Amino acid sequence: MMVAALPLLMASCGSDDSLTVTPSNAEVKCGETLALTASNKNVTWSSLDADIASVDTKGVVTGKHIGQTRVEAVDNDGNNGSSEITVVASNNNFTAPLTAWNSSIADVRAAMTSWSNITLDTQEEDALTYTTNGTFPMYSYGFDNNGGLMASILAVSLEQDEDLDLMGWLDERYWYLSEVDGDFFYYDANNEASATMMIKYGYNATLDCVTVTWTPKSNTKADGVTRAAESAAFKALRSTLGK
Predict the structure, then answer these.
(1) Which of 24, 197, 19, 180 lies closest to 100, judged by CA?
(2) Three-class SS string for 80-117?
(3) Would the CA dihedral through 131, 167, 173, 226 be positive or negative?
(4) Tens of pLDDT, residues 120-161
(5) Residue 40 to residue 17: CA distance in whole angstroms
(6) Which of 199, 206, 213, 195 is nearest to 127 (CA)?
(7) By the 8 A CB rule, do 60 and 54 touch?
């Protein structure tokens, strides 16, 4: 009886009841989908971070935010498999401005050599303004009284914003925090407490444009911006546009 049972025992030891998810590594763009498959059709799907990528009951993954997460499948016997998901940008219409806080005006000039510096008679000493093509997009940098970088501003016209979707660009890269008086606030880390920057998206009626302001969180006031630096940067924008 022991001899007869041996082949059965060996067969049992050699069996593989693990679950395989295909592909095991995948890349998906924000807003797009990717179908995963499991070696067992009767599985439950889940994402370790649904804010990065979600997954439905059929294993279809949707990219939500730039980052990485793991999508897992578990069958009725407790076997599990997973796929490492990397979510990449679908909106690459803008470039984030320089945010090396407390950098000197000379440091910013050196870092922006590939951009077109706008030099005006009315240019503030504590602001630098650059453009890529024509008037917009425009990048303006505001400095505190000690000459240290305290605000970075990206501005686009309303018409251009409709075509290039600045808020959509933000949503893919940063984390929404709140809306205050029509302005939208973001932060740059998964954990708000560890965020290094506060980011504000809003409409400027005087300039008739949409702006995003980056400021170091350690130097912001209650509304999330350093008003003095922002004022200097906006003056440069107004001067450039003749407002």
Answers:
(1) 197
(2) EEEEEEEEECCCCCCCCCCCCCCCCHHHHHHHCCCCEE
(3) positive
(4) 555 566 788 888 766 678 888 888 877 888 889 898 889 889
(5) 10
(6) 213
(7) no
Q: What are phi and psi of 14, to 5 degrees?
A: -90, -5
Task: Give CA–CA dist 65/86, Å, rounded.
Answer: 10
What's the pLDDT tens digit per position in 27-86? 999 999 999 999 998 999 999 999 999 999 999 999 999 999 999 999 999 999 999 999
User: Do the Cβ atoms of 207 and 237 come closer than 8 Å?
Assistant: yes
∠ CA(181), CA(196), CA(238), 5° rounding? 50
∠ CA 26-28-32, nearest 5°, is 145
User: How far is 194 from 48, CA to CA, in rounded Å?
Assistant: 21
CA dist., res. 126 & res. 113, Å (int): 18
What is the value of pTM for the model shown?
0.82
Which residue's structure tokens are 């008739």? 208
Please count the other Cβ atoms lying within 10 Å of the Cβ belonging to residue 228: 16
CA distance 111 to 106: 9
User: Which residues touch 55 (CB under 8 Å, ≥6 apart)?
Assistant: 36, 45, 46, 47, 61, 62, 71
